[in-house]
Amino acid sequence: MNNQPMVRAIDVRKSYGDQVAVDGLTLNVPTGKTLGLLGPNGAGKTTTLHLLIGLLRPDAGQISISGSSHVDSAEVRSLVGIAPQSLSLYDELTAEENLTFFGRLYGLRGPRLAERVDWALDFSNLQDRRRHRVQTYSGGMKRRLNFACALLHEPKLVLLDEPTVGVDPQSRNHIFEGIRRLQEAGLTIIYTTHYMEEAQRLCDMVAIIDHGRLLELGTVPELIQRHGGVSVITGDCSAPPPDSWPGHWDGQVWRVETDKPLETLHQFSIQTSHFTRLQIEQPDLESVFLRLTGRSLRD
Amino acid sequence: MGNILTIAWKDLILLSRDRMAMFFLLAFPVLMGVLFGLMYQNTGQPNPRGLAVAVIDEDQSQMSEAFLKHLVANESLKVERLELAAAQEKIRRGQIVGIVVIPKGFGATAGVFWANDPVPLRVGRDPSRAAEAAMLDGFLMEASGKLIADRLQDTAFTRGLVDEQKLALQQDQTMNPVNKLLVGQLLSSLDGLFENLDQVSKLENTDGTSGNPVLNDGFQFAKIESFDAFQKPTSTELKIRSGWDISFPQSILWGVMASAAGFAISLVRERSRGTLLRLQTSPVRPWQVILGKGLGCFIATMLVLVVMVCLGLALGMRPQSPLLLAGSAVVVALCFVGIMMAMSAVGTTEEGVGGAGWAINMVMAMFGGAMMPLAFMPSFMKSASDFSPVKWAIVSLEAAIWRNYTFTELLLPWTILLTIGATGFAVGLYFFQRNLR
Q1: Quick check: A62 and A93 in contact, CB under 8 A?
Q2: CATH 1.10.8.60: does it fit domain B48-153?
Q3: pLDDT by residue (tens digit) across B343-357?
């Protein structure tokens, strides 16, 4: 494994007038890893992406991709593939024409171009619709094609900006499967989302961003351990629990906080039959975000 | 170069799949060309029955009939005999230029240039068509001149008039004796003139023709001979050979402007649909994007020009210099491609660029002579037209089609057009790069 991070950002700042979009972002994305940028809408995730690939010029700070600080050079851009949040496709062209056009921009020609277009159509499961205009596609099909366009030139770094927004469950699973294949192939992925389930499922590391600031960066277990708090066991019961049980009973609901919920249940020989409903709430990224920002991801 | 061609090719495919854009690019200029052509189709040749006029003959005499015959014989007039009320209704509706009333007694003095108190023609004119009314006055004078010739042909009638004048002269006791002597000698000499005319008529009419051959050519106050204002001594066949020669530069310009306006939207459309972001993140440089767009626009514009020229040729346009026409077409296309680039990069929304594009086109067309000929414009608009690329584009095309410019003479309009195009490209590139950040 290459030790050099694929993406490095040091104290990057970007403002629009008085509005601070990115405030002192510092992070490293190791080669071959998937980083999730997690934050609510308007947190600065897309601006961060655009800064990382040179679409925006930072007011301060340094950014490098694969060791090069010339992030808008043709060489670096050839290493990067992006699937923007807004669909970046020509509706009047077919899937094949879209892919061919974007492939040519990356220098692909002749049999190699045809081979990559075929690969992308397979990847997006659009072989049978390859000669249909994009304007006839469903939202999910467009999303998949948008994703495939980012991979046509075999980039080393893939940026996926909210790739599952507005897609059906089938296309969402297809996209997840595609990401898994890219991870297996050793690509570095930066994945922005405001769905914590996706970040938790797909990402090796998660950066939590809010109001343009990087609040925390780490693996999902690390973040939960650091900021998720403890698990909570709650149970509905009309009779008071035995005095030996931990926690407290408010007359209807018994509640206890613990680091190890199953062990606690076992340790105190708590009978599930005592409850009409028993629930264990484990901390997740949502609770991490809530503790870090004081508000929910969906807010 | 590969990236530029790729972007241009993609834009042309997108254009070909947009029916509305194709209509404005090809069908619209063709329609404009045909309309302008129909307007100008009689330029350079006599206009058959162009000026509609109503005539009311209250005199019903031989001379009023002769006068009417001369008017009808004039190919520039469309003469209609009407009652006064019907004629007034027609002029109110703008269907005729004027009403000519031949009053009672007109025939008694018509064509008699020495008549003391001739009965005048009465003419009513459409006040909104002053130029045409003035032309009508000229045609009436011409017909009146022919009546004098008619009178001189009728020697018996004219002799009678002369005799009447002689008798009146003898009875006149108030005239100065010297003047009386001179006028008497003039009238006597007319007798001699009529005698000679009769003699000539008898000799010449052996070929079967009627009337006096000396006078048969008709009387003219001034003899006018036409010449080709564009013909040079060494040139052959240099003239407007068809109305389409004049109409097509304007219609070609409409096509060029439609092409520029259509492509101006394409760049901002890339932004609104998000594809610009993909272009930006690819290894393509901003200037390649702009040049790619420009190349697409240039190819489409040249296509319009070729189609329009072919249509013009089919309808009768005959360019005097195909080579210079090709040069003008390329220069005009480059100029408007530059203007397109500036328009597309300055705006940020499709609606803004689309609206501004056509608004700018309309202003340029209005001041540049694509809407109405420069000759009909007030002086301030003529001066302002120097700042419109449309004017220089029309001049460049006309120069090659019928104005017979030399290459050296074309350098001025070409330089102006290329300068505008280069400026547009620079402005477009500057704003495009600025907006990227």
Answers
A1: no
A2: no
A3: 888 877 888 888 888
